[in-house]
Specification:
The protein is α/β, with parallel strands linked by helices. The chain contains 14 helices and eleven strands.
């Protein structure tokens, strides 16, 4: 049997031994679908035999969202063109966007743990159902600008790496950022409180909780289905990236946009540790260095495209695309800025703590409490 097949069997067995009280519910929720998929992968691996020669290793990589700048201009060229050059032809790769690969985003952690996906990208907001601690760095209202976001991720990065390695057998290789996630709406609004009663597309539990606190009706909808949801009248507003919204034609179905950053759409890129350590040490070193450069380029682009994407949405001269729109820009109300901290303290952080208890309190207090001047109290036995 090929080494890949044995690796998947080993990881399925290992995942059952790693099951604990915090994850048993999600394990039961995903187990049968994962086991079925793993069985199919094993059959294909057995039928096809081992991967190519000793001189060349071919990787299959699951990347980020399809049809947006991060994937088309950065991830895909890196894996298909730069990686063979970096490794002198020892590594070649194909990369597929996860929302067109047949994988469910919320299951990426489990798929990587099992070795079904050896190299993959996962949106932190989507895998937060399994591991709420991971997504604290992108909770709504936490990071009003890119400077704050960079500082937050830097402070918390080692904790993310530890969780992925210790609980999931995943090697953290990069953390990526999309442009600021902002509000697109079909009808006029002036402040966040005007969203009361409206149906709002969200992409995370935290965003949904924020909309509920405002009296809105949150509806979690995949990125690829946002435009269609407006056309069918399913939603009145959507939270998504300034540039990615323009790239999928969201200004064609909405008229008003706020520049207020609600969150940023962070993701992590990692590798199943067994698959990672099967690569020669010098190849791992070359890949890690290349991925670090890729991460830096993606962050710089996210910073730049937050403003450029907004320019394209409203049709201002700073837009770098031939296709521009003419949405109405909703100025940020001073009340919204002052409400940010109150949302964070009274709604966002308490709801996050309810999802993972004292572990979240300890993680926050040891990494981010000083930065935000918020010390969280310990969870009492009857609170969780």
């Amino acid at each position: 049997m090929p080494d890949f097949a044995w690796a998947v069997i080993h990881n399925i067995w290992k995942s059952t031994r790693l099951m604990n009280s915090r994850s048993v519910a999600c394990q039961h929720r995903h187990w049968y679908s994962l086991l079925t998929f793993a069985t199919i992968v094993l059959a294909v691996a057995i039928a096809r035999g081992a991967e190519p020669s000793d001189q060349t290793t071919h990787l299959r990589v699951v990347g980020g969202l399809a049809n947006v700048t991060q994937f088309t201009k950065f991830e895909r060229p890196f894996w298909q063109t730069e990686v063979p050059k970096l490794t002198q032809g020892r590594i070649t790769a194909d990369i597929y966007p996860f929302d067109q690969s047949g994988f469910a985003g919320p299951e990426m952690l489990q798929l990587m743990r099992l070795g079904v996906v050896s190299f993959g990208t996962a949106l932190l907001a989507q895998v937060a159902a399994d591991e709420p601690e991971l997504n604290v760095v992108d909770l709504p209202t936490l990071n009003p600008d890119m400077k704050t976001l960079r500082k937050t991720v830097s402070a918390y990065r080692s904790h993310i790496a530890d969780i992925l390695a210790r609980r999931y057998g995943v090697e953290l290789l990069a953390i990526y950022a999309y442009p600021a996630q902002v509000l697109f709406c079909t009808s006029k609004f002036q402040t966040l409180h005007d969203l009361a009663g409206r149906k709002v597309r969200t992409s995370s539990v935290g965003q949904s909780e924020m909309m509920e606190a405002l009296g809105a009706v949150p509806i979690q909808i995949p990125f690829a289905k946002i435009v269609d949801s407006f056309r069918r009248g399913v939603v009145d507003c959507a939270i998504t990236g300034t540039r990615s919204g323009a790239e999928i034609g969201l200004p064609e179905v909405t008229s008003y946009i706020s520049p207020l950053a609600i969150s940023w759409g962070l993701s992590f890129f990692g590798a199943n540790r067994d698959a990672w350590h099967q690569l020669p040490a010098d190849v791992r070193k070359e890949l890690r260095a290349g991925i670090q450069h890729l991460e830096a380029a993606i962050w710089d682009a996210a910073d730049r495209e937050t403003s450029v994407g907004l320019a394209c949405d409203i049709g201002s001269a700073e837009c770098d695309s031939e296709k521009t729109y003419h949405m109405t820009l909703v100025p940020v109300d001073p009340a919204d800025q002052s409400d940010r901290r109150q949302f964070l303290i009274k709604t966002i952080l308490p709801q996050w703590i309810q999802r993972c208890g004292q572990d979240c309190v300890d993680a926050w207090n040891s990494t981010l409490a000083r930065q935000f001047d918020i010390q969280l109290p310990s969870v009492q036995a009857d609170d969780h």
